[in-house]
Amino acid sequence: MHGGCVASRSADSRTGNGSPSAVDAVSLAIIEQLQEDGRRPYAAIGKAVGLSEAAVRQRVQKLLDQGVMQIVAVTDPLTVGFRRQAMVGINVEGDLDPVAEALSAMAECEYVVMTAGSFDLMVEIVCEDDDHLLETINKRIRTLPGVRSTESFVYLKLKKQTYMWGTR
Amino acid sequence: MHGGCVASRSADSRTGNGSPSAVDAVSLAIIEQLQEDGRRPYAAIGKAVGLSEAAVRQRVQKLLDQGVMQIVAVTDPLTVGFRRQAMVGINVEGDLDPVAEALSAMAECEYVVMTAGSFDLMVEIVCEDDDHLLETINKRIRTLPGVRSTESFVYLKLKKQTYMWGTR
DNA sequence: TTGGATGCGACTGAATCCGAAGTTGCGGGC
DNA sequence: GCCCGCAACTTCGGATTCAGTCGCATCCAA
């Protein structure tokens, strides 16, 4: 499967206004449950949010189909053999989109975002070692047409990483 | 619950050498399966990786217990009511740790990482609106003792967000 | 060789998932 | 006012899956 890009999928459902296919309070509560444990049984979620098991199942399916949420395993890259990570700020000449698309297509890019400020794009890179990191930045990113300059921030230590959006 | 920080948990199991309680190839294959679909049945995973259902279940449980992996729902913050996100680069005077700790304790900070380069810390912030974002950066981050300067990159559009570590 | 620990497959009852069908509530067209 | 369609919910029964537990093979150290 090629799946796995929340942003682009949800962008589809967002065409038009700024407030997408609004997620109501109940669905938010369901998401919170699944943020605590992605395999929690539907019946348990239903009890927590006041819905039947089937209703929860239908809502979860819809949230997944719409790309509002995905249920996945996440790991600490360091424990699975990726020893170098970096954030790369990029300045682009002309249209951002083709560059952003090209970056998104690269397996090493975990995270691609367009920003306002002194960078046009910020990209998180996950690599196996220094050589891999160097090659990715120097040979693959900096040579993309439109890329004017880059600045790299190699990760020294990951202090916090959460997935609790909506839980506040 | 307060759970949910992969980094700190896996750091515990990482004390000692650089290569932790090494994840073998079969467990990696299991992780890959769960990165595609966090609710995939154990039997289906077993068929894919060549193990019995029970063996997969035991391995998954161990991976979860060890903090190597967690199975969670992830969302695009924009679709669940958080309309402003930013990456903030921070320069610190003196020891980084207390500042990193303070940032990690803030609910708005999704992601805190120490970096090499022209920033000492990079932090991802998720806020409900502009006021919230301004207050967080200006009143809560910039006033932390030790923070010398900050630079903000407000997100315009999230292009890619994956959790496919290890899938390559 | 022996003892202990570990990982695996097989089995079983209980819990869960899943699809189909029926119910309710609401708004638009006639 | 009435009917129709739509969307979300509930109920229900059968198939599947989950969570223990058991015995067995392997590996490693004593």
From TrEMBL, chains A, B:
* Residues of the HTH asnC-type domain: 23-83
Q: Which PROSITE patterns match?
A: HTH_ASNC_1, HTH_ASNC_2
Extract the ranges annotated as region (Disordered). Answer: 1-21
Would I find Transcription regulation among this entry's keywords? yes
Q: Does the keyword Transcription regulation apply?
A: yes
Alphabetic keyword roster:
DNA-binding, Transcription, Transcription regulation
**Which PANTHER family does its entry note?**
LEUCINE-RESPONSIVE REGULATORY PROTEIN (PTHR30154), TRANSCRIPTIONAL REGULATOR AZLB (PTHR30154:SF34)
| Stated name of the protein | Transcriptional regulator
